[in-house]
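Exam revision sheet. Question 4 asks you to relate a sequence to its structure. Input first:
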Amino acid sequence: MDTKHCTVDGWVDAIPVSGPRGTAAFDLVVRPADIDTVVDDAPDTVITCTSADPRITHELLTGIQPGDLLRVTGTLVQPPAPGGNAQLTVNALEVLDTGCIAVLRDMVLDRYGDYCVIFDADTDAVPVFTAFGLWVGVADNPDAIATLIDIHERVNGGDA
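Answer key, C-alpha coordinates:
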Protein backbone atom coordinates (compact mmCIF):
# COMPACT_ATOMS: atom_id res chain seq x y z
CA MET A 1 0.00 0.00 0.00
CA ASP A 2 1.42 3.40 -1.03
CA THR A 3 1.61 5.92 1.84
CA LYS A 4 3.02 9.44 1.99
CA HIS A 5 3.40 12.09 4.69
CA CYS A 6 1.95 15.29 3.27
CA THR A 7 0.19 18.60 3.86
CA VAL A 8 -2.99 19.40 1.94
CA ASP A 9 -5.22 22.49 1.76
CA GLY A 10 -8.89 22.00 1.05
CA TRP A 11 -12.49 22.79 1.94
CA VAL A 12 -14.61 20.81 4.34
CA ASP A 13 -17.44 19.21 2.37
CA ALA A 14 -19.87 18.35 5.21
CA ILE A 15 -20.08 18.57 8.98
CA PRO A 16 -17.41 16.29 10.50
CA VAL A 17 -18.80 13.21 12.25
CA SER A 18 -17.61 11.29 15.27
CA GLY A 19 -16.31 7.81 14.66
CA PRO A 20 -15.39 4.77 16.71
CA ARG A 21 -12.98 5.00 19.65
CA GLY A 22 -12.87 8.81 19.86
CA THR A 23 -12.11 9.49 16.21
CA ALA A 24 -13.62 12.08 13.89
CA ALA A 25 -13.97 11.93 10.11
CA PHE A 26 -14.66 14.42 7.33
CA ASP A 27 -14.23 14.82 3.58
CA LEU A 28 -11.82 17.44 2.28
CA VAL A 29 -12.32 18.84 -1.24
CA VAL A 30 -8.96 19.63 -2.83
CA ARG A 31 -8.29 21.61 -5.98
CA PRO A 32 -4.96 21.58 -7.84
CA ALA A 33 -2.50 24.39 -7.09
CA ASP A 34 -2.34 25.15 -10.81
CA ILE A 35 -6.13 25.46 -11.22
CA ASP A 36 -5.73 27.71 -14.29
CA THR A 37 -4.20 24.86 -16.29
CA VAL A 38 -6.95 22.36 -15.43
CA VAL A 39 -9.95 21.78 -17.69
CA ASP A 40 -13.02 23.69 -16.42
CA ASP A 41 -15.14 20.58 -15.87
CA ALA A 42 -12.36 18.56 -14.18
CA PRO A 43 -13.66 16.95 -10.99
CA ASP A 44 -12.34 18.01 -7.60
CA THR A 45 -10.35 15.51 -5.56
CA VAL A 46 -12.05 14.29 -2.38
CA ILE A 47 -9.85 13.04 0.44
CA THR A 48 -11.47 11.21 3.34
CA CYS A 49 -9.80 12.40 6.54
CA THR A 50 -9.79 10.87 10.02
CA SER A 51 -8.09 11.76 13.26
CA ALA A 52 -7.79 10.15 16.67
CA ASP A 53 -5.90 13.07 18.25
CA PRO A 54 -8.22 14.38 21.01
CA ARG A 55 -7.43 18.06 20.32
CA ILE A 56 -8.07 17.71 16.59
CA THR A 57 -11.19 15.60 17.16
CA HIS A 58 -12.59 18.21 19.54
CA GLU A 59 -11.96 21.01 17.05
CA LEU A 60 -13.51 19.01 14.21
CA LEU A 61 -16.65 18.18 16.17
CA THR A 62 -17.18 21.58 17.78
CA GLY A 63 -15.63 24.24 15.57
CA ILE A 64 -15.40 23.11 11.96
CA GLN A 65 -18.25 23.74 9.51
CA PRO A 66 -18.81 23.00 5.82
CA GLY A 67 -16.97 25.52 3.67
CA ASP A 68 -14.07 26.03 6.10
CA LEU A 69 -10.66 26.07 4.40
CA LEU A 70 -8.23 23.80 6.26
CA ARG A 71 -4.59 22.85 6.05
CA VAL A 72 -4.20 19.27 7.24
CA THR A 73 -0.98 17.31 7.70
CA GLY A 74 -0.76 13.57 8.07
CA THR A 75 -0.28 10.22 6.41
CA LEU A 76 -1.97 9.79 3.04
CA VAL A 77 -2.93 6.33 1.83
CA GLN A 78 -3.83 6.01 -1.84
CA PRO A 79 -7.24 4.48 -2.63
CA PRO A 80 -7.20 0.70 -3.07
CA ALA A 81 -9.11 1.02 -6.35
CA PRO A 82 -9.03 3.69 -9.06
CA GLY A 83 -11.76 6.28 -8.54
CA GLY A 84 -11.90 5.73 -4.77
CA ASN A 85 -11.15 8.36 -2.15
CA ALA A 86 -7.67 8.67 -0.74
CA GLN A 87 -7.47 8.30 3.08
CA LEU A 88 -5.59 10.85 5.19
CA THR A 89 -4.89 10.27 8.88
CA VAL A 90 -4.60 13.81 10.24
CA ASN A 91 -2.05 14.65 12.93
CA ALA A 92 -2.04 18.46 12.46
CA LEU A 93 -4.88 20.82 11.57
CA GLU A 94 -4.92 24.54 10.82
CA VAL A 95 -7.98 26.63 9.90
CA LEU A 96 -6.98 28.95 7.06
CA ASP A 97 -10.38 30.55 6.49
CA THR A 98 -13.93 30.03 7.70
CA GLY A 99 -16.87 29.45 5.41
CA CYS A 100 -19.89 31.69 5.32
CA ILE A 101 -22.37 31.26 8.14
CA ALA A 102 -25.16 29.03 6.93
CA VAL A 103 -28.52 30.69 6.47
CA LEU A 104 -31.51 28.56 7.37
CA ARG A 105 -33.60 28.26 4.26
CA ASP A 106 -35.39 25.04 4.99
CA MET A 107 -37.13 26.20 8.18
CA VAL A 108 -38.84 29.47 9.00
CA LEU A 109 -40.20 30.58 12.36
CA ASP A 110 -43.17 32.94 12.08
CA ARG A 111 -45.53 34.58 14.54
CA TYR A 112 -49.32 34.74 14.39
CA GLY A 113 -50.32 37.14 17.21
CA ASP A 114 -49.83 35.14 20.41
CA TYR A 115 -48.75 32.01 18.48
CA CYS A 116 -45.53 30.85 16.80
CA VAL A 117 -45.37 28.43 13.89
CA ILE A 118 -42.51 26.59 12.20
CA PHE A 119 -42.58 26.11 8.45
CA ASP A 120 -40.36 23.28 7.20
CA ALA A 121 -39.65 22.85 3.49
CA ASP A 122 -39.61 19.05 3.90
CA THR A 123 -43.20 18.74 5.13
CA ASP A 124 -46.63 20.37 4.87
CA ALA A 125 -47.28 19.87 8.60
CA VAL A 126 -46.85 23.04 10.68
CA PRO A 127 -46.06 22.82 14.43
CA VAL A 128 -47.83 25.52 16.45
CA PHE A 129 -46.82 26.87 19.89
CA THR A 130 -47.94 29.77 22.03
CA ALA A 131 -45.56 32.72 22.20
CA PHE A 132 -44.61 31.39 25.66
CA GLY A 133 -43.54 28.06 24.16
CA LEU A 134 -46.53 25.93 25.14
CA TRP A 135 -47.41 23.20 22.66
CA VAL A 136 -50.67 23.76 20.73
CA GLY A 137 -50.51 21.07 18.06
CA VAL A 138 -49.69 20.37 14.44
CA ALA A 139 -51.66 21.90 11.58
CA ASP A 140 -51.88 19.51 8.63
CA ASN A 141 -50.86 22.31 6.27
CA PRO A 142 -50.40 26.11 6.35
CA ASP A 143 -54.08 26.68 5.51
CA ALA A 144 -55.10 24.80 8.69
CA ILE A 145 -53.14 27.01 11.10
CA ALA A 146 -56.03 29.42 11.75
CA THR A 147 -58.41 26.51 12.47
CA LEU A 148 -55.97 24.97 14.96
CA ILE A 149 -55.52 28.34 16.71
CA ASP A 150 -59.31 28.87 16.85
CA ILE A 151 -59.81 25.44 18.43
CA HIS A 152 -57.05 26.10 20.96
CA GLU A 153 -58.55 29.47 21.95
CA ARG A 154 -62.07 27.97 22.34
CA VAL A 155 -60.77 25.13 24.51
CA ASN A 156 -58.62 27.47 26.63
CA GLY A 157 -61.07 30.37 26.85
CA GLY A 158 -59.14 32.68 24.53
CA ASP A 159 -55.87 32.36 26.47
CA ALA A 160 -52.82 31.73 24.38
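Marking note for examiners. The beta strands are 3-12, 17-18, 24-30, 45-51, 69-77, 86-97, 107-112, 115-120, 126-130, 135-139.
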